[in-house]
Task: structure prediction
Amino acid sequence: MSKIQTHRSSRHMPPIVEQVELLKALIALAAADGKIASSERGLLVRFAAKVGIGSASLEAMIERALADPSVRDDLFHRTMSNPQLALEMLVATARLDGNISDSERELLIHVRGLLNISMDDFAQIYERGIQKADSLRNAKFASDT
Result:
């Protein structure tokens, strides 16, 4: 199966699986230089909390990525095989609660830079991510009523 097919099939994963994969991608991006700055760690903690990942699980994921360069590299390369989709999913996840906070936006912009995505492309990806999240929230709201 090609990388493109793999990522297409990942669009059909349950949301929690997608969110865990996104968290792993964020960890890989943050740890790409072999360390995670305190500001990056804070953003990872906030993202993990937002998607329901506990601090012990997050720390284990971080330690594994830092301790084993092959794990970090594998996660990083999987993210880089479709960086625009990865960023779009991050935007959508950040927006699921109806709002993207300043710190979440800072993280998204930071990830944009790590993924070498231009600001013009980022603006389009950002809008697609917001639309995706809003449509998911609206569908959930409609099914709850």
Summary: Helices lie at 3-10, 15-30, 38-50, 55-67, 69-80, 83-95, 102-114, 119-144. The two ends are 40 Å apart (CA to CA). The chain has a mean pLDDT of 80.
